[in-house]
DNA sequence: CGGCATCCGAGTAGATACTG
DNA sequence: CAGTATCTACTCGGATGCCG
């Protein structure tokens, strides 16, 4: 496992102090972490974002195939949310049959870059998590 | 808004290709993104991780105060999961009254560093998201 | 103090059928 | 093709009470 130095921990704490400083999670006021992260960290939304980063442009049914297991309802809901928040654009071509294309905005790409670092971490440490779980279960 | 160059987009696509290459999200087999990210990206777990990064060690009720709005049940559930996955340790001191302390493991810190980048993005772009939503609503 | 057991209500996901 | 509509099922969260 990669090591984490005390110095790095301190840096993290400092960043957190800065973050917490002007949000104040204790009050009921708007909190970007709870709001932005809520959607952004949703299981389905993550997969949608990743696939739209991989394929520059995707249509509804194509996306549905890639995001294995998602239902029509949930997919269209998530797409609407992600569009609303500015992460992607929806372009409709009134042909017959109709064609709709989804692609990331620059804002979406900016977010994806951060998200990607997390998912990379997840893929490379997934086996450790599994090991930890087993150990915990038998303990 | 910060700009995203085509070159950066390409880099992202390459990373994604690498990730997708040896996971194959289309099959039902284990997928670290869906698994690891599911917990790690949970709204409450995120807040727990952040506070444990800020305060090196926290007790149950202290944590409950900081993670505003969380119930006993959910907090203890999340703590157990996070412990099981190896992100934090639970230390019990059999005093009276009992004292229990939670703190991040090195593994947890490693994860937190990545998570933090995402939440930093969220806090600094939260207003943009709000603006986008308003624009979308009136459009 | 630090939980767990229990119950209940709301919301959300999923399946299916249907439409412009 | 790209969704919407509808209905059901079920998970999940919140509240409460209790106990070591």
Summarize the structure.
The structure is a homodimer of 139-residue chains. Chain A is mainly alpha-helical.
What do these coordinates show?
The structure is a homodimer of 139-residue chains. Chain A has 6 helices and 3 strands, in the order αααβααββα. In chain A, α3 (43-54) crosses α6. The mean pLDDT of chain A is 90. In chain A, strands 1-3-2 form a 3-stranded antiparallel β-sheet. The first copy, chain A, has a single domain (27-138), classed as Arc Repressor Mutant, subunit A (Orthogonal Bundle), CATH 1.10.10. With 139 residues, chain A is mainly alpha-helical. The structure holds a DNA duplex (20 and 20 nucleotides).
CATH class of chain A: Mainly Alpha
Structural class of chain A: mainly alpha
> In the CATH hierarchy, what is the superfamily of chain A?
Winged helix-like DNA-binding domain superfamily/Winged helix DNA-binding domain
List unreliable stretches of 5+ residues of chain A: none
The multimeric state of the shown protein is homodimer
Give average pLDDT of chain A, whole number: 90
Trace the largest sheet of chain A across and list its strands.
1-3-2
The residue fraction in helices of chain A comes out at: 55-70%
- SSE ordering of chain A: HHHEHHEEH
β content of chain A, as a range?
A: 5-15%
């Amino acid at each position: 496992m990669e090591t984490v130095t005390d110095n790095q921990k301190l840096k993290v704490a400092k960043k957190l102090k800065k973050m917490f400083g002007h949000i104040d999670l204790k009050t009921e006021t708007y909190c970007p972490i709870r709001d932005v992260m809520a959607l952004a960290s949703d299981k389905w939304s993550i997969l949608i974002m990743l696939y739209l980063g991989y394929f520059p442009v995707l249509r509804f049914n194509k996306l549905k195939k890639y995001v294995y297991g998602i239902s029509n309802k949930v997919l269209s809901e998530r797409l609407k949310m992600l569009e609303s928040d500015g992460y992607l654009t929806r372009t409709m071509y009134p042909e017959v049959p109709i064609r709709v294309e989804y692609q990331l905005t620059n804002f979406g790409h900016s977010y994806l870059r951060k998200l990607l670092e997390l998912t990379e971490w997840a893929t490379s440490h997934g086996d450790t998590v599994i090991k930890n779980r087993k150990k915990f279960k038998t303990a």
